[in-house]
Amino acid sequence: MKLSIIVPVYNVEPYIERCVRSLEQQNIPKQEYEIIIVNDGTQDQSIQIINKLRLEYPNIVLIEKENGGLSSARNYGLKYAQGEYIWFIDSDDYIEPNILNSILEKSYELNLDLLAFNYYHIWPHRKVQGFNPQKQPEKKIISGKTYIQKYPIGISAWFFIAKRNIINQHKISFIEGIIHEDYEFTLHLFQYINRMTFENINAYNYFHRDGSITTSKGYQQTLRSIHSWQSIIASETKRYTNKDSYEKEAIQWVNNHKFYGINRLFFAKIPLHIKLKEYEKLRTLGAFNIGKNHLSLERKFRCFLLCQPWFYKTFIRCFSIFTKQIQ
Asked: Where are the transmembrane segments (predicted)?
């Protein structure tokens, strides 16, 4: 089997049929790929829709598990995958029709470990291309190390297909119980990629909707985001110790992730005593020790200020007072 597409499902009743039908409207035989639906304890009618689709399409595999979140569902789906390549798809998104043949043909022709491709941001009344192809390794075969060194790396786990044996051999998995998990996963994966390229085809449609993991707001979601960055920083700081050329390059991206964590906490609308507690956790993790990085010029300046203890602790207090006054 050439390809396993892993689709975690949790409370996506309005979107799941569009997603699955897009995966089936393709130009390769059904026996060449499988669609692994991971029921992550969904509480709506999503699985009833899937079961109807299974009557139409023989390549849908449904597996069940207790709710554990996106990372847990992806990891679980990997255990059942049979394809040479893996593609992670989010169940509220969808792909373009008749693109699998060109994606797989290019991957096999060039013996690629990973093939990346372009995508669209989809809003209700707007459609925007994701990557600037001039800033991606189009028509070049490079390693993962070269990619993270010379290019603005893609983060999302759905912007590429990758060889399953590389993921399994190196025990690459998503950190469970967090959000922002793709940052850690992709940086880990690129370490073992010897042959990759970028194909400028708009294969994926990333649908922006209210209520998704990335757009949800509120006190608990804010804390979840902060705790997720803490977990990512802890994991990456332990993994990348500057012992080889890849790790030296990866540390620059880890420094980006440190900035995302301290910046998220700085602007978080949470009680001051909790903010100070989370500040100490980040400080203990070394999140304020940020060296060379890939931040924009504006963010480099902000990073410099946020890494000054006097500035950070003074202004989070000011920010907390200000947000109270405008509520």
From this structure: none
Q: Is the separation of the CB atoms in 59 and 132 below 8 Å?
A: no
Q: Domain range spanning residue 318? A: 241-326
The 3-state DSSP class for residue 226 equals helix
Q: Determine how β-strand 85-88 pairs with β-strand 160-163.
A: antiparallel
Whole-prediction pTM value? 0.94
Q: Which stretch of DSSP H or E encloses residue 248? A: helix 245-266
318 and 169, same domain (yes or no): no
> From CA 126, how far away is CA 190, in angstroms rounded?
32
Please name the residues in contact with 130: beta carbons below 8 A apart, sequence gap of 6 or more: 118, 119, 120, 121, 159, 206
Could you give the CA distance from residue 318 to residue 316 in angstroms, rounded to a whole number? 5
- Decide if 135 contacts 70 (C-beta within 8 A): no
* Residue 12 sits in the same domain as residue 65: yes
Which residues make Cβ contacts (< 8 Å) with residue 132, sequence separation at least 6? none
Q: How many C-beta atoms surround the C-beta of residue 251 within 10 A?
A: 18
**Structural domain total, the chain:** 2
